[in-house]
Each structure stands twice: as C-alpha cells, then as structure tokens.
Design a protein that fits this description.
Strand content: 15-25%
Order of helices and strands: HHEEEHHEHHEHHEHEHHEHEH
Bound molecules: ligand C2E, magnesium ion
Domain EAL: 24-272
Protein name: EAL domain-containing protein
Largest sheet: 8 strands, mixed, barrel
Length: 286
C-alpha cells in the first residue's frame, strides 16, 4: 500500500508510526557511525562470591557514548536487534571481552547475547573463530541469554544451547523473575547459571510473595546444580537476603559498578582484587 493511501485511511496511526520509524532510523544511522568510528566500549562489572566477597567473575556491558553522552544500552540494543546490526556489534563485544579478559587469570567472563544473535545461523562459526583467535579458554566463558529467546521453538533453542556447550562454553539464564521464564525452563534447558533479576531482589525485601518466589527458585536451581547470581544488589539487606536464600554470587553497586578493562587490570595488579577459583562451597548435587 502506498504511504498516501495509508495516511488517508488512518492519519493518526501513520503519523505516530512514521515518527517512531524516523526516530529508530536516526538511532540506526548514528549507531552505524558509532560502530565505524569506535564509539562503542565494553565495561566490566565484577561479580563477587556471596561468602567471601572476592571477585569471581566479570560481566561485559556494552557502552555507547554519543558525542560524549551515554546512550541507554537497553534502548540502542533494541534498535541494533531490529536492524540486524546486533550481529556485528555482538561479535565485536565478544572478541573485545575475550581479548580483555584473557589476562584476568581465574576470573570467569559473562557476555550477553541477544535472541537475534543466537538465531543467526553464523553465530556458532563466529563464536568458534573468536575463541580460536583470542585463545580465550572456553570454560571461562559464559553466555547470558534472556527468557525471550526461550519462548521460541524448543528444538531450535536446545540445538543452539548444545552448540554453545559443545565449545565448552557455559550458558546463564539472565533476568529471571521478570517475565515468563518458569521453573520448567530450568529443567528443560539445564543452564549452568541462573541470574535473579534486580526487580525480584528489590521486591523480595518487602513482599512476602516475591520473597517466596525468589527463595524457592534459588532452591530449585541449586538442587539442579546451577550456580545462582543475585543481580543489582544495592543494599546490605538485599545482599543478606540473597545470601541466606542461597545465592552463590552477588552483583551490584553495593560491591562494584561497571568499570573499564584498564581499571580491572589495575586493581588486579594492585592485588586489590583477590582471585578465587570457581569453587562451589558446600554445594552438592542431590
Ligand atoms: P543485564 O544483562 O541484566 O545487565 C545488568 C544491568 O544491571 C546492567 O545495565 C548493569 O549496569 C545494571 N546494574 C548492575 N548493578 C546494578 C545495581 O546495583 N543497581 C542498578 N539499578 N542497576 C545495576 P546496563 O549496563 O544498562 O545494561 C542493560 C541491559 O542491556 C543488560 O541487562 C543487557 O540485557 C543489555 N546489554 C548490555 N550489554 C550488552 C551486550 O553486549 N549485548 C547484548 N545483547 N545486550 C547487552
Ligand atoms: Mg546480563
Ligand atoms: Mg541481567
Ligand atoms: Mg537484569
């Protein structure tokens, strides 16, 4: 249908639609320039052991400073997904993170991958290349996927998770407790790690129902031999609750914000960050 024809049928809808499209095309053009002009950066947020507070891992978080102003990742990643730019950006993040983290002996590295990346048939090939080129040990790498990916065809999902694991790379289910992901998903897909979303951590502090859900989800995940991380821990009370509920790792501003690779390296060199192995204290399979 022609644009004019559409406008005649429903003017308001099309104006609104055009405005959104224009905005997203503007972001897309700027994002293309950002990729070409090295405006993207990967920061790293440490995850600490719930018992010792020592750093055990880092999560790679993408940053884009447009003319010096930070753009919210959730917003520009959505545009990158819609436009397919996420494939180029995603493999850049993975390569950069594996290169940076190579020197951080003993620390695990988590990298977020979007559903659009996983659905790309070339993803396994890219992952293989990056591991080979960087020499990053696959067993130190973990990919964080979101539940929105899991609601797709379970056969395809299982196949791509198997593919990731065939490299020796782990899979974490990110943002658990925000939407549709159920306990059934944990059984079906057998993740190496479950990450409890910040919203559930916050709500659990003063809502009994949320607390029950958090505590029981963590218990189930642990019984299935998964590691559990509490995300977005900002207060000592939240940390205590997460620890009591059985979280292995804590991540949040109470401990560390995301910092540059140089900052991680600097702290490691100063030995301000003490590295521990990937042990699972008192965590036995039932
Ligand atoms: P996420 O994977 O759940 O990452 C955790 C988010 O929580 C990060 O937001 C982090 O900065 C924030 N956070 C950590 N601790 C705290 C805290 O104590 N309080 C609060 N309020 N927030 C905390 P960020 O960096 O804005 O990233 C947002 C989302 O964008 C990520 O959520 C992830 O889904 C996505 N993302 C980030 N980097 C990448 C990437 O390289 N690739 C893909 N596909 N997605 C990415
Ligand atoms: Mg994540
Ligand atoms: Mg998360
Ligand atoms: Mg989250």
């Amino acid at each position: 249908a022609s644009k004019t024809g559409g406008k005649m049928r429903c003017t308001w809808f099309n104006d609104e639609f055009d405005r959104k499209l224009e905005q997203s095309q503007k972001v897309e053009r700027a994002l293309r320039r950002a990729v070409a002009g090295n405006e993207l950066q990967v920061l790293y947020q440490p995850l600490v052991d719930a018992t010792t507070s020592e750093i055990v891992a880092v999560e790679a978080l993408l940053r884009w400073a447009q003319d010096g102003v930070a753009v919210d990742p959730s917003a520009f990643i959505a545009v990158a997904e819609e436009t397919g730019l996420i494939n180029a950006i995603g493999s850049w993040v993975l390569r950069q993170a594996c290169t940076d983290a190579l020197a951080w002996d003993g620390l695990k590295l988590s990298v977020n991958v979007s559903p659009a990346q996983l659905r790309n048939a070339d993803f396994p090939i890219q992952l293989g290349h990056i591991l080979e080129e960087t020499g990053f040990p696959p067993d130190r790498l973990e990919l964080e996927i979101t539940e929105t990916y899991l609601v797709g065809d379970p056969v395809i999902v299982c196949r791509s998770l198997e593919m990731i694991r065939s490299f020796g790379v782990g899979v974490a289910l990110d943002d658990f407790g925000t939407g549709y992901a159920s306990i059934g998903f944990l059984r079906k897909f057998r993740f190496e790690k479950l990450k409890i979303d910040r919203s559930l951590i916050v709500e659990a502090a003063d809502d009994e129902g949320s607390r029950a859900m958090m505590v029981s989800s963590i218990a189930v995940a642990r019984a299935m031999n998964m590691f559990v991380t509490a995300e977005g821990v900002e207060t000592a009370a939240q940390a205590a609750l997460a620890r009591t509920a059985g979280c292995d790792h804590l991540q949040g501003w109470l401990y560390y914000k995301a910092v540059t690779a140089d900052e991680i390296t600097r702290q490691l060199a100063k030995n301000a960050i003490r590295i521990t192995g990937d042990h699972r204290h008192g965590h036995v399979a039932h």
